[in-house]
Amino acid sequence: MLGLGTLRRVAKEITSDVTAARDRDPAARGVGSLEILTGWAGVQAILAHRVAHALWDTGVPLAPRVIAYGSRAITGVEIHPAARIGSDFFIDHGSGVVIGETTEIGDRVTLYQGVTLGGTGFARGKRHPTLENNVTVGSGAKLLGPVTVGRNAKVGANTVVIEDVPPETTVVGNPGHPVRVEGRPVEGPDTDWIHLPDPIADAIKELSNRIAALERKLAETGARKTDSADSADVTELRPRKGPSSAGG
After folding, report:
1. Residue 97 confidence (pLDDT) above 90
2. Whole-structure pTM value
């Protein structure tokens, strides 16, 4: 049954979500709660999900899916009613975000636009990611399968995550691999996603530079050999005149 306790819990979660939007979105600073509820698509999507999930948990048929479908049509955010989402959740901009059925999200998690928390294959059971507390996922990142992203971890923009991410780690690339900035993990939900280091890209660039340098050296060596051959003394061979050494 959808009791008074459930309604109180949903109201508390919605209040914390509005507070999270105000804390993490500079555009929401100084903006009233009503304006955030009516003008922030990510907040609207999570508000609709709180209601749909409460109905799903109580076994109400059809209504949770109708709410989820309507929310997707209005906000561009698709959240399955069964997904479990903690408090202080924030979706920045929201458009294109997909959160699958068996996804589990902890407290104080932030997602940016275009994030997919998706499954792999057709097997039933746990098949979507688990995000622990204080995780931040950058724009366009794809987290696929029943992977776990540890607490305080960061996932860079457009990263593809197919393996577990340890706590306190920042991952970038395809597939995602750990990075550090100045020997320390990247900190804060408002990380500069544009300038995250990428060790694999740096290694490829270094190899490319070394190959270019070797090609220049080979070209210079070939040019020196050609010049040396052109400038060498050449003795012209002419028939010898006079008596033949063979006699006759």
Report:
1. yes
2. 0.72
